[in-house]
Specification:
Layout (H helix, E strand, L loop, with lengths): L1 H31 L7 E2 L3 E2 L5 E9 L2 E9 L11 E5 L11 E11 L8 E7 L18
Antiparallel strand pairs: 1-3, 2-3, 3-4, 5-6, 6-7
Length: 142
């Protein structure tokens, strides 16, 4: 019976120590970072041109911070990297325009970004269809 009681006390001491260790980790994060919790972030501004690596500035009360960010240099540049969309499959080719289109619905807006709920994107139709099965050298039966 005494062994059971000692074991129970030991378990309780270990749980209390683990709980205190978790609190200290949270305190360290606060000391190294910021006490402020209501950050307002601006858009990502590229260092040069209109896409690529840049910075975004954030403010909270009297504090300001700069974070590194990146604006895509492909078709996603149109709506930025802060608006995440779920896209449908590409539609068929429109012979009149030579473009195919698809729409996307907003999945997530990062850094308080102002995003459209739905967007429509286009890309040129491929000039010819790609063959899915290609013979590989050395992989076939002899």
């Amino acid at each position: 019976m005494q062994v059971r009681g000692l074991f129970l006390i030991l378990v309780l001491i270990l749980m209390a120590a683990a709980s205190e260790a978790g609190k200290n980790k949270k305190d360290k994060v606060r000391k190294n970072g910021s006490e402020c919790e209501d950050w307002r972030w601006g858009p990502c501004t590229p260092n040069s041109k209109d896409c690529g690596v840049g910075y975004r500035e954030g403010t909270c009360k009297e504090e300001t911070k700069r974070l590194k960010c990146k604006i895509p240099c492909n078709w996603k540049k149109e709506f930025g990297a802060d608006c995440k969309y779920k896209f449908e499959s590409w539609g068929g080719c429109d012979a009149a325009t030579g473009l195919k289109a698809r729409s996307g619905t907003l999945k997530k807006a990062l850094y308080n970004a102002e995003c459209q709920e739905t967007i429509q994107v286009t890309k040129p139709c491929s000039p010819k269809t790609k063959s899915k099965s290609k013979a590989r050298k050395g992989k076939g039966k002899d």
